[in-house]
Specification:
The protein is built from 29 helices and 22 strands. The protein is α/β, with parallel strands linked by helices. It folds into four domains: 148 residues, Rossmann fold, CATH 3.40.50; 178 residues, Rossmann fold (3-Layer(aba) Sandwich); 236 residues, Aminopeptidase (3-Layer(aba) Sandwich); 99 residues, no CATH class. Strands 10-11-12-9-13-14-8-15 form an eight-stranded mixed β-sheet, with helices on both faces. A seven-stranded mixed β-sheet has the order 3-2-4-5-1-6-7, sandwiched between helices. β13, α11 and β14 form a beta-alpha-beta unit. α2 runs antiparallel to α13, α24 packs parallel to α29 and α25 packs across α26. The longest helix is centred in the C-terminal third of the chain and has 22 residues. The termini are far apart.
Length: 731
C-alpha cells in the first residue's frame, strides 16, 4: 500500500480452492469487511457480493480488495468495470480455472455469443487465450497455480513508483470558494476546476478529457457544487444516472462543507443550496428541454452520447463536456472526431483541459496498464500521416480473420481502434465478440498495410421453422436483429429464411473521410457476398446524412422504429440491399408494407420525427407507390391547390399524393421547405400555427397558401385527365 499502486493476484485452479485462497488473502491483509467485494455467482459470503452481470453497480465506488470469480459468467465488461473500482494500494484478485483449461472452457458468456443458427461449439476461446497470455507476461501480476501449489509469478514490480504526495496550491485569483480547491487532489484537478469557473458566465464551453481514474467527474462535481452555492441552476446529464454518481457525491460534499446544502442528497440526484441554486440530474434525451431554464449544463461521459444529442446541448448558456479518452464508457477520439468541429463552430468560447495524473492510484499502476492492454482500451487507428494518401484506387480489400488479428497485435489495435470510432459506445465485450463470435466477420481496406476503412458484419437468418415460429410468437433470438424485427414486429414469419449479412459497424479513418472509401468498401462487400447471401442489411440511428449515405450505396428503407433509443434519442432505420431473388422478394414486400403504413405512423408514433429524417427515409424507399385518388379526391386536391378548396376536406388524398412525391422526389422538383411542409402538416398532422412557426411563415394563412402552391406541380405531374381538366378551370 505504501506505493499507492494496485496489484493483480491470479489464483488459477479449482474454484473452491480459489475462494479459500482469496479468503486467506483478505484475512492476511487485515482489510475491513466493508472494503471487500466478491464478484461471483456463488452465495454465502460475509463480504459484499455482486453478481457478475451486475458489476456496473460498482461504478463510482472504490474498494480495497475486489475478488472476481471468473469460473462462471465471466465477461470482458465485468473485468473492465471491476478493475476500475480498486483503490490505490489495493488488490484485484482473479479466480480462474487452470489457465490452459480456461481457454477451452465454455460458459454462459460463450452461450450468448452462440447466436442461432450457431451453437456454443462454434464459439472459440481466442479472447481468453489472449487474456491468459497477458496474465503470464505482464508486469505486476502474481500468478499462483492452485493445482500444483506453486507460485509461478511473484508480481514484483517497482517501475514508475512515485512517493510525491504533495497537494496542489490554492490559486489566489479564483472565483470558486477556497474549500473547492482544497478538495482537489492533484494539480491537474485544480487546473481543471479553474477552467470550469468560466461556466459561471454564459457563452462558455469547457472540454475535459481524461483517462479513467483521473478525477474528471470529481472536478465536475466540485464545480457543480460551487456554481450551486452561487445560486446557479446546474443540470447534469450522462448516459445513465450511475455515470453521474461521483458528480453528485462531490457536489454534496462541497455544499455541506460550505454550509450551503439546503435539501436533497446525492442518492436522489438533486441538491439544493441555500442561495437558491441546485444541481439536478436529467436523462440525455430530456436535457435539451431542461437547459432552456438552466444556467449551466455538465455532460459527463460525453463520448458515450451521439453527436445529435451533443449538438443539441450547445443551446445551453454554458456547457462542460467531460469525456473519457480510453474506457468502456465511450471513446474520447470519437467525441473529438465527430463533434469537435460543431463545438468549435458554435458561439461558445471553448476551453480545453486534460487530466493525466491518476488520483485513485499512483502513476505507473500495473493494473491500469494491464487492463488497457488486455481489453484494448488504448486501441487506436493508424497515425493520420501514414494513410493520408489513401484513395479507392490505391487501397486493397482484405478479409481479416480473428486468427489474423490475434497473430498481429498491431493489426488488431488498428482494426479495433477504428471500430471504436464507428459507434458512440464500444465495450470490452465487443473485443471478445470480434475474436470469438462465430457469426461475425471483418472486412477492411488497407493502404501500405495500414487499415483505413473497416466493416464488421454479422451473419443473420437461415433459421429453422421452429426458431422462426418462436420469434413470430414474441420470443427473442440473439444476434439476428433484422430477421427478429421483420418477424416479431412486422409479422413476416418467412423473414428468417434468407441469409443476410448485417453491417454492424463501418468506419473510415477521419484523415481520409469523404474520399469514397466507405462506399468503396461496401461495393467490395457486395461483390464478395453476391453468391453467398440473399441480402445485405443495416440498422442505425436515423439521421439525414446516414440515410443519404446508405441510399447512395443502393440500400433501401424498409422500416423506421416507433420508439427512440434510450441513449441516442434517435429513431432507428432498417435498410436492405438485395443480392438474390429471395432477398429481392423480402426487400420488395417490406418496402411496400413500409410505404403502406408510414403515412399513418407519421401522424401517430412518429409525429415528432425530424422532417428531414422523414424526407431522407422516404427518398430511400425503392418501391412504386401509386397515389390512387378517386375523381372526387382529385377535385378536392385541385381545388385546394389551384382554387378555393380546403386541404382539410380530404387530408388522406393529400397524404397519399405527398407520399408519392417523397418516395420519388426526383420526378417533381419541390424545395426543401416545401417538402418539410408536406411532412409536418400533411403526414405528421401538426397544427397550422406550429408548422407556420417552425418553417418561418408570417402567418397560418401564408402557410396554408404555401401548401396549396406546393401541391400544384404534384397535380401537374400525377393528375388524371379529369384532374387536369379541373385544374384548367381555375387557371
Amino acid at each position: 500500500m505504501a506505493t499507492n499502486q494496485r496489484r493483480l493476484l491470479v489464483f488459477a485452479g479449482d474454484r473452491d480452492a480459489g475462494i479459500d485462497a482469496a479468503f486467506d488473502v483478505v484475512r492476511g491483509a487485515d482489510v475491513p469487511d466493508d472494503e471487500v467485494t466478491f464478484v461471483t455467482t456463488r452465495e454465502g459470503f460475509r463480504f459484499h457480493r455482486v453478481e457478475p452481470r451486475q458489476a456496473s453497480q460498482l461504478l463510482g465506488t472504490t474498494q480495497t480488495v475486489v475478488v472476481l470469480d471468473a469460473h462462471d459468467d465471466f465477461s470482458a465488461n465485468t473485468l473492465g468495470r471491476v478493475a476500475g473500482t480498486v483503490d490505490g494500494g489495493g488488490l484485484l484478485v482473479l479466480l480462474t480455472p487452470p489457465l490452459d483449461e480456461w481457454v477451452t472452457r465454455r460458459d454462459s458468456f460463450d452461450e450468448r455469443l452462440a447466436v442461432p443458427p450457431f451453437t456454443t461449439a462454434d464459439v472459440t476461446g481466442r479472447f481468453r487465450g489472449r487474456l491468459v497470455s497477458t496474465v503470464r507476461d505482464h508486469p505486476g501480476i502474481a500468478l499462483v497455480n492452485l493445482d500444483t501449489e506453486t507460485v509461478e509469478r511473484t508480481g514484483a514490480y517497482r517501475q514508475g513508483i512515485s512517493f510525491d504526495t504533495s497537494l496542489p496550491t490554492v490559486p489566489r485569483d479564483r472565483r470558486f470558494p477556497r474549500r473547492a480547491y482544497e478538495d482537489c487532489l492533484t494539480t491537474d484537478q485544480s487546473d481543471t476546476l479553474g477552467a470550469l469557473e468560466t461556466l459561471a458566465e454564459p457563452g462558455n464551453a469547457v472540454v475535459v478529457e481524461a483517462d479513467r481514474g483521473r478525477g474528471k467527474s470529481s472536478a465536475a462535481g466540485i464545480a457543480a457544487g460551487s456554481l450551486a452555492a452561487e445560486g446557479r441552476d446546474v443540470v447534469v446529464t450522462a448516459p445513465g444516472r450511475r455515470n453521474a454518481a461521483e458528480v453528485f457525491v462531490r457536489a454534496e460534499r462541497l455544499l455541506t462543507e460550505l454550509d450551503r446544502l439546503e435539501s436533497g442528497s446525492a442518492d436522489d440526484y438533486i441538491l439544493r443550496s441555500s442561495r437558491g441554486g441546485q444541481v439536478r440530474y436529467v436523462p440525455p434525451t430530456e436535457a435539451d428541454s431542461a437547459i432552456s431554464i438552466a444556467d449551466v449544463l455538465i455532460v459527463d461521459e460525453a463520448a458515450a452520447l451521439p453527436v445529435r444529442l451533443l449538438t443539441s446541448f450547445l443551446d445551453a448558456p454554458s456547457v462542460a463536456f467531460c469525456t473519457t479518452v480510453r474506457g468502456y464508457e465511450g471513446a474520447g477520439r470519437g467525441f473529438a472526431v465527430r463533434f469537435r468541429d460543431r463545438l468549435d463552430e458554435s458561439s461558445h468560447d471553448v476551453t480545453d483541459v486534460r487530466l493525466d495524473d491518476p488520483i485513485r492510484y499512483a502513476a505507473g499502476d500495473p493494473v491500469e496498464s494491464w487492463t488497457f492492454r488486455a481489453l484494448l482500451l488504448d486501441a487506436r487507428p493508424p497515425v493520420a500521416q501514414l494513410i493520408a494518401d489513401a484513395t479507392p484506387e490505391n487501397v486493397a480489400y482484405r478479409t481479416h480473420t480473428p486468427d489474423d488479428l490475434l497473430a498481429d497485435e498491431h493489426l488488431l489495435r488498428e482494426a479495433f481502434g477504428l471500430l471504436v470510432l464507428a459507434h458512440y459506445r464500444t465495450e470490452p465485450d465487443d473485443l471478445a465478440r470480434l475474436l470469438d463470435a462465430p457469426n461475425l466477420t471483418l472486412r477492411a481496406l488497407t493502404f501500405d498495410g495500414r487499415i483505413v476503412s473497416v466493416a464488421l458484419l454479422a451473419r443473420e437468418g437461415n433459421l429453422d421453422a421452429e426458431t422462426r415460429r418462436h420469434m413470430y410468437d414474441g420470443g427473442r433470438i440473439r444476434g439476428n436483429m433484422l430477421p427478429d424485427v421483420f418477424t416479431s414486429q412486422l409479422r413476416d414469419e418467412e423473414a428468417g429464411i434468407p441469409v443476410s449479412y448485417r453491417v454492424m459497424r463501418i468506419a473510415t479513418h477521419h484523415a481520409v473521410r469523404s474520399s469514397g472509401l466507405g462506399s468503396h468498401l461496401l461495393s467490395k462487400i457486395r461483390d464478395e457476398f453476391a453468391d453467398e447471401a440473399d441480402y445485405l442489411g443495416v440498422g442505425f440511428g436515423a439521421t439525414p446524412e446516414l440515410l443519404s449515405f446508405w441510399r447512395e450505396n443502393g440500400y433501401g428503407t424498409v422500416h423506421l422504429s416507433t420508439t427512440r433509443n434510450d441513449t441516442s434519442g434517435e429513431y432507428s432505420a432498417l435498410m436492405v440491399y438485395p443480392l438474390s431473388s429471395e432477398g429481392r422478394a423480402l426487400h420488395d414486400r417490406h418496402a411496400e408494407w413500409f410505404v403502406q403504413r408510414i403515412g399513418d405512423v407519421l401522424g401517430d408514433a412518429l409525429s415528432d420525427l425530424d422532417p428531414d429524417v422523414a424526407r431522407a427515409a422516404l427518398a430511400a424507399v425503392e418501391t412504386d407507390f401509386e397515389a390512387s385518388l378517386s375523381d372526387y379526391e382529385w377535385r378536392v386536391v385541385v381545388g385546394a391547390s389551384y382554387g378555393p378548396g380546403l386541404y382539410t376536406t380530404a387530408p388522406g388524398a393529400f397524404r397519399r399524393l405527398g407520399l408519392a412525391h417523397l418516395t420519388d422526389p426526383g420526378r417533381v422538383s419541390l424545395s426543401e421547405r416545401e417538402e418539410r411542409l408536406v411532412v409536418r402538416k400533411v403526414l405528421q398532422t401538426r397544427p397550422w400555427s406550429s408548422v407556420a412557426d417552425e418553417l418561418g411563415f408570417h402567418s397560418t394563412a401564408q402557410c396554408m397558401r404555401a401548401l396549396g402552391a406546393a401541391y400544384q406541380p404534384l397535380v401537374d405531374e400525377y393528375g388524371t385527365e379529369g384532374a387536369l381538366e379541373e385544374r384548367d378551370r381555375h387557371r
